[in-house]
Design a protein that fits this description.
80 residues; mainly alpha; 2 helices
């Protein structure tokens, strides 16, 4: 193989792995904050403050992941 191709593929896989790690932390943070925001666990939460729906939060957290997957698929095809 051409050395430049190996470098491009290595950079691609490193970037892909970092995207996966970042998305895991985003989802983990979202899940922890939704658990911490329940009224029975945190009595200091103001009742007038609207709370996000867990399904909506999951959708908004998953949309960037889907976009990254599509982008990574096209990028992988472009470097080959």
């Amino acid at each position: 193989m051409i050395p430049g191709l190996l470098l491009r593929e290595a950079i691609f896989w490193i970037a892909a792995a970092l995207c996966v790690v970042a998305e895991i932390f985003i989802l983990r943070s979202m899940l922890r904050s939704s658990r911490a925001a329940t009224p029975d666990r945190s009595p200091s939460v103001d009742a007038d403050v609207p709370r996000a729906r867990p399904l909506g939060e999951m959708i908004w957290a998953a949309l960037p992941a889907i976009g990254l997957i599509v982008l990574l698929i096209y990028t992988r095809g472009a470097i080959r």
